[in-house]
Amino acid sequence: MSTHGTVTSEGPEAMSPHAAATTTGADRAHDPGPFSMKQLERLDEALTMASRETGISFTVYVGALAGDTRVTAEALFPRLGAKAANGVLLAVDPGQRVLEIVTGQVSAKRLPDRSCALAALSMTAAFGSGDLVGGIVNGLRMLSDQAGHPPRLR
Amino acid sequence: MSVVETILVFVVAPAAAVGVMALLIWGRGDTRGPRYRPGREWPYEPVWYAPHPLAVQDLSQRGPARPQLPAAVSARTVTSAPPAPTAAGGARGTW
């Protein structure tokens, strides 16, 4: 399992989450994103494990959320397409220091708002100390623990 | 102790020790990414990470198959539309 999250570099208006394809160090050299290769690997592993264990497709957005952050995050959410109903979006705006967790119609049944709030609390604690990737990884782990395995695997 | 020895012991040796430590501390700065500091602006383009599609697909193919209704029955009696792709809940946090 050596897949890495890919990086999209479009504005939030035009973007949709890229399915993670394998990126190499050479690719990254052209696009100096906010995270190092090692951090991206941690992020990718956490995303993939959380999604595999729960069947929920978790996605992580890191960037500016213009205007009302909640409205913007909820406007981004339907761009997950068919996966949106059973998806979760963690939208982090490090500039404004805001985190928004958005759940879909199906995933909300397994991830009630209270669990999301708990994960958000843990994440913002890590963000406050400057650890963006650690906070995201921890939040994904908490959310996937809360959601558990999908019903058909029980 | 000659002058050369004195200089070696009291100047060159400490300088070498400090140099080694400085290299250990700052020499590998490139391998770590830029560090996020709360309160500073975020100059990067937005990025959106998604899991590898196989990670989610794998799961739907595992486990026993779900019982299927005949097509005619499901079309007539079970007319639930797929859930709309809108946000249903979540949480927010600030730091």
Q: What's the overall geometry of chain A?
A: globular
Give a quick account of the main beta sheet of chain B: strands, pairing sense, barrel closure.
none
Unreliable spans of chain B are none
SSE class of chain B: mainly alpha
Average pLDDT, all residues of chain B: 76
CATH architecture descriptor text of chain A = Roll
Number of domains of chain A: 1
Specify the helix fraction band of chain B. Answer: 40-55%
Please give the share of residues in helix of chain A. Answer: 40-55%
Radius of gyration of chain B: 32 Å
Number of helical stretches of at least 4 residues of chain A: 6
Distance between the termini of chain B: 61 Å
Q: Poorly predicted ranges of chain A (pLDDT <50, ≥5 residues)?
A: 1-13, 19-29
Oligomer: heterodimer
Instruction: Kindly report the CATH topology of chain A.
Output: Diaminopimelate Epimerase, Chain A, domain 1
Please describe what this structure looks like:
The complex is a heterodimer of chains A (154) and B (95). With 154 residues, chain A is α+β, with helices and mostly antiparallel strands. Chain A has one domain: Roll (Diaminopimelate Epimerase, Chain A, domain 1), CATH 3.10.310.50. In chain A, 44% of the residues lie in helices and 12% in strands. Chain A is built from 6 helices and 3 strands. Chain A has helices spanning 25-30, 37-54, 69-76, 107-110, 113-128, 132-147, and strands at residues 57-62, 87-93, 98-103. In chain A, strands 1-2-3 form a 3-stranded mixed β-sheet, sandwiched between helices. Mean pLDDT of chain A is 81; it is low at 1-13 and 19-29. Chain B is mainly α and 95 residues long. Chain B has a domain at 1-27. Chain B contains 3 helices and 2 strands, in the order αβααβ. The model of chain B has no long low-confidence stretch (mean pLDDT 76). Chains A and B meet through helix 2, strand 1, helix 3, strand 3 and helix 5 of A and strand 1, helix 2 and strand 2 of B. Strand 3 (98-103) of chain A pairs antiparallel with strand 2 of chain B, so a sheet runs across the interface.
